């Protein structure tokens, strides 16, 4: 079964480019487009998509207000913000509105596709730059886990998995981690899956925040 997607953006060129990409994915079905938040709310009701790619700065009704209404009216729909704004004044309200993730428009196409698939499954999705910024606020001086409370919870990870997790806390994507470690991206994905399984977590951001908290405890 394909993932039904509603694309919301007020720029026609952006709509055209993203639509083309989405239609190339064998497991995606682009069920509609909207040009502002009001249309997004109406089409969410009409088309009942699985995932909505939501821009923020739009006429008539912005993406945050639209996401808030959709979360109330159609809570099963996953709203994934796709915008150019990377400042906290946009990120926090967007996530508080009920959006399951926040991606920037400079994201690599493959990363966007994976974010959509993961959001569909109910996992929180953050652009690497956004994750890095939020983690920096949580623990700006965090260091790798050494001795201290919580270390035993990390000992189930292999040395390589710990290395991958530490790179995740820096907001690095699988592609970036693969390059840094000189391994295949597929290998990194395997490590990430193993890390999430061992820590009983559903997404990499949750695991990164958990690791950062343990890093602070070890200081």
TrEMBL record:
Modified residues (4-aspartylphosphate): 55
Residues annotated as domain HTH luxR-type: 150-215
Keyword Manganese on entry: no
One Gene Ontology biological process: phosphorelay signal transduction system
PROSITE patterns from the UniProt entry: HTH_LUXR_1 (PS00622), HTH_LUXR_2 (PS50043), RESPONSE_REGULATORY (PS50110)
Zinc-finger among keywords: no
Gene Ontology molecular-function annotations: DNA binding
InterPro entries attached to this UniProt entry: CheY-like_superfamily, NreC/VraR/RcsB-like_REC, Sig_transdc_resp-reg_receiver, Tscrpt_reg_LuxR_C, WalR-like
Pfam families: GerE (PF00196), Response_reg (PF00072)
Annotated Response regulatory domain residues: 4-120
Keywords, alphabetical: DNA-binding, Phosphoprotein, Transcription, Transcription regulation
UniProt-recorded name of the protein: DNA-binding NarL/FixJ family response regulator
Naturally occurring in which organism (per UniProt): Paenibacillus endophyticus
Lineage: Bacteria, Bacillati, Bacillota, Bacilli, Bacillales
């Amino acid at each position: 079964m394909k993932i039904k997607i509603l694309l919301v953006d007020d720029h026609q060129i952006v709509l055209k480019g993203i639509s083309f990409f989405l239609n190339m994915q064998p497991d995606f079905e682009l069920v509609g487009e909207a040009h502002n938040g009001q249309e997004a709310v109406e089409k969410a009701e009409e088309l009942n998509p699985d995932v909505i790619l939501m821009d923020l700065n739009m006429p008539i009704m912005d993406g945050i207000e639209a996401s808030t209404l959709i979360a109330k009216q159609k809570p099963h729909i996953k709203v994934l913000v796709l915008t150019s704004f990377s400042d906290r004044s946009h990120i926090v309200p967007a996530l508080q509105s009920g959006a399951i993730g926040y991606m920037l428009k400079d994201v690599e196409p493959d990363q966007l596709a994976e974010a959509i698939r993961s959001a569909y499954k109910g996992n929180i999705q953050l652009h690497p730059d956004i994750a890095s910024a939020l983690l920096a606020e949580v623990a700006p001086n965090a260091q790798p886990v050494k001795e201290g409370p919580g270390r035993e919870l990390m000992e189930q990870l292999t040395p390589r998995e710990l290395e991958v997790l530490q790179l995740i806390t820096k907001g690095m994507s699988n592609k970036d981690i693969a390059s840094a470690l000189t391994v295949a991206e597929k290998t990194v994905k395997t490590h990430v899956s193993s890390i999430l399984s061992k820590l009983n977590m559903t997404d990499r951001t949750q695991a990164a925040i958990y690791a950062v908290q343990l890093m602070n405890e070890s200081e």
